[in-house]
Write a structure and sequence with these properties.
Structural class: alpha/beta
Distance between the termini: 23 Å
Bound molecules: N-(aminocarbonyl)-beta-alanine, zinc ion
Number of helices: 12
Amino acid sequence: MSIIIKGGRIVTAADDYVADVFVDGERVSLIGESLDLDADRVIDAAGKYVLPGCVDPHTHLDMPFGGTVTIDDVESGQTAAAFGGTTCHVDFCIQGKGQTFADALTDWHAKAEGKQLIDMGYHIAITDLSFDGALEELASLPEQGVTSYKLFMAYKGALQVDDETLFKAMEVAAGSGALVMVHAENGDAIDVLVKKALAEGHTEPHWHALTRPPETEGEATNRAIQLAHVAGCPLYVVHVSCKEAVEPIALARAKGWDVSGETCTQYFFVDYTFLERPNFEGAKYVYTPPPRDKANQELLWDAVRTDVLSAISTDHCAFRWDTQKSLGRDDFSKIPNGGPGLENRLQMIHHFGVREGRISLNRMVELLATNPAKLFGLYPRKGTLAVGSDADIVVFDPEKHVTITAKGQHSKIDYNLYEGTEVVGTPETVLLRGNVLVAGGELVASPGIGRYVARARFGGELARASQPVAA
Ligand code: URP
Ligand code: ZN
Ligand code: ZN
């Protein structure tokens, strides 16, 4: 199957020009002006942007958490992603306590079996290094394309690891070429604050934020940075929400340390006051770190614009409000932590970032596609439009008006963080490796088309699409 995308404005992290893109099979095979080539399908992209498919480095599909399981499985989550212009994501494979990493990966591959609409990889989320051979097994994971280790410094009694485990994982990563990712909050201090708040009778959703002050995020971020430096491994701080965490990252980067970080779409738009909405509406915004005050929102825009933060992810971790968030009606600490976002990242960042003049179009592509692909070993197969890259392509209509609603979304969740927001600009046609996924507002591909992608080690070069994709 061949496709020619004619006359669009091709935007990558580095370039911005009008040309045709010729796709032969799964790859981009030619880019040029007024190409005179026959193709099985012609897509007229005049007046449209032609972007690389977005890469989301942080999602939680079909994940047991907070006494329930995230509502989007691989199929519904990836459907939402496809409509939003995301063609590849890296999800978290969570190791059960005492479970080998091989067994954990087998479980998570099984969840995806036959359901994939877009390409995906896994980070391994480490919860336990105490079993025999754990460190050796961890060191071998990059051979299977699992080239990032995630550790939670919060969620005491559940996913949280102690500093010994964190540091051992960092030492392994320094030798294995993996990138260490941290959820940076001081879980012990938060646990004390939560217990105190509950003992004083505070049960409402906004206490989620009051018991997780920005300093607990700042402290853990700095601790992780210092430990990673001692271990000599690269570090990526997930879902950065506030000044207290941005500052140590900025300092480390200024010193030339191998530290990077992301924020998530919601931290630009949802602030603390959303948690105070009456009748338990606030529970919709219970995710971690919590929504902060408005001052942090402009600070985060500055951080992504100036490359203090390198990526914008969604941390899509969707729980329905009616049946799942309700677990915490009488106790904020029992509200499953997480929010949705896979479908609206590109629309929201394009409208409020690019159209409103906060970041350039090139920087948007860099934050949503190129940098996540580079940091997580997917580049240049993913994250750019170049000859030889996978033909993961978004034809984006920059003038189309859309109102974001839960009713119109493809996730199984019953609310949308941006309900009623009017944006200009939305994906029109989405291709995954040369296959049309979304066109004319419809999903036109079937589950099974997406693949597991083995990723390169941190800083390593991934083979181009002409190489087989390991399963
Ligand atoms: O509240 C959140 N962010 N839930 C997902 C798990 C995590 O911490 O990333
Ligand atoms: Zn987290
Ligand atoms: Zn997360």
